[in-house]
Specification:
By secondary structure, the protein is an alpha+beta fold. The protein has helices spanning about 10-20, 50-65, 90-110, 150-155, and strands at about 1-5, 30, 40-45, 70-80, 85-90, 125-130, 165, 170-175, 190-195. Strand 4 (about 70-80) and strand 5 (about 85-90) form a beta hairpin. Helix 2 runs antiparallel to helix 3 (about 90-110). It is globular.
Length: about 200
């Protein structure tokens, strides 16, 4: 299973973001579906079935050790010219702690994780089509196609502030990668387990 630990925004936060993004959606970027709007805490990739019981137990412990925290969608950012995202504000120290604990839980369950970096909360909104793929060098194809500048989108979303909510759940999400080969098809996401954060 292709899995990651995540914080999922509530419907109210998704609705606010939907309104903010609606005027910006165009065909120059590949926009993520609302089902893909989440804050990934620890990406695990393909996880073997025999590891799951240990992983579940360790993630449950990580959730129970972490107190609920306030969060809101906030502003925007980008990774080079590859991706456009909205960020988070609120109790980010606790969110980073939860991300560290989820990462550690996966490692201790025997999942080979990428090098651990300081956690940057981000919810991916769109990606650039032009990633330098393909071998057609004619104008407008493959390498000849310049990435769409993200600056207009960043300017439009810079002042975005969502309504705060209380994060009280750690979710384990499965992503099903597209198999149809249809360009632009999105992964499907399925919450396979969820654990409450520490209750007082």
């Amino acid at each position: 299973m292709r899995l990651f630990a995540a914080v999922l925004p509530p419907e109210e936060a998704v609705a606010e973001l939907r309104e903010a993004v609606r005027p910006l959606r165009d065909d120059r970027l590949t926009w993520t579906s609302e089902a893909g709007w989440h804050f990934t805490l620890a990406f695990m990739g393909e996880v073997r079935d025999d590891v799951l019981p240990e992983l579940h137990a360790r993630l449950e412990r990580a959730a129970h050790r972490t107190e609920p925290f306030g969060l809101r969608l906030h502003g925007c950012g980008h990774f080079g010219d590859r991706a456009l995202w909205t960020g988070a504000a609120g109790d980010l120290d606790i969110m980073r702690l939860l991300a560290d604990r989820a990462d550690a839980a996966a490692r201790r369950a025997g999942i080979p994780m990428e090098q651990h970096h300081r956690y940057t909360p981000h919810l991916t909104l769109a990606r650039n089509h032009a990633q330098g793929h393909g071998h057609d060098h004619r104008q407008g194809h493959g390498h000849g196609r310049a990435a769409t500048p993200l600056r207009p989108y960043l300017d439009a979303l810079a002042g975005f502030e969502g309504t705060a909510w209380q994060v009280d759940t750690l979710s384990l999400v499965r992503s099903h990668l597209p198999v149809s080969g249809v360009p632009g098809e999105q992964p499907r996401y399925e919450t396979v387990r969820a654990w409450p954060l520490r209750t007082p």
